[in-house]
Design goal:
Shape: elongated
Number of helices: 4
Largest sheet: none
Number of domains: 1
Radius of gyration: 19 Å
Bound molecules: zinc ion
CATH architecture: Up-down Bundle
Helix content: 55-70%
Structural class: mainly alpha
Strand content: under 5%
Length: 114
């Protein structure tokens, strides 16, 4: 990986981190505990509970990715950034551009899923 590519990826990491941070703030605002309110019908309440569960799930997923991106960002100047942790081959740049936090090349990632 050359310096130019590394800089481009560092930028992609920054953009991803900023976008996720915003998403986390938005989700946090929407994630409010549902207070027992007699004026709400049972149906509406269960609908809200369900909604909160969906939001909670999205929040957890975003949080995990956010932490992973932050970690990657702190390591992206290391020599082994962009190398697959399993086979130590270079990870394709296109893949890193979409998923800068990935630690495996396409081949190893699909091996792992099996
Ligand atoms: Zn690999």
């Amino acid at each position: 990986m050359n310096t130019e590519e590394r800089n481009a990826l560092s930028l992609v990491l920054d953009e991803n981190i900023a976008a996720l941070k915003k998403e986390l703030v938005d989700l946090e605002e929407q994630l409010q505990p549902i207070t027992p309110d007699c004026s709400l019908g049972d149906l509406l309440r269960s609908e809200m509970m369900c909604n909160q569960e969906v939001l909670q799930g999205r929040y957890e997923t975003a949080k995990i990715r956010y932490n992973r991106l932050k970690y990657t960002k702190s390591k992206c100047n290391d020599d082994n950034y962009g190398l697959c942790e399993i086979c130590e081959d270079e990870i394709a740049l296109q893949r890193l551009m979409i998923m800068p936090e990935t630690r495996y090349c396409v081949r190893c990632a699909s091996e792992r899923k099996k």
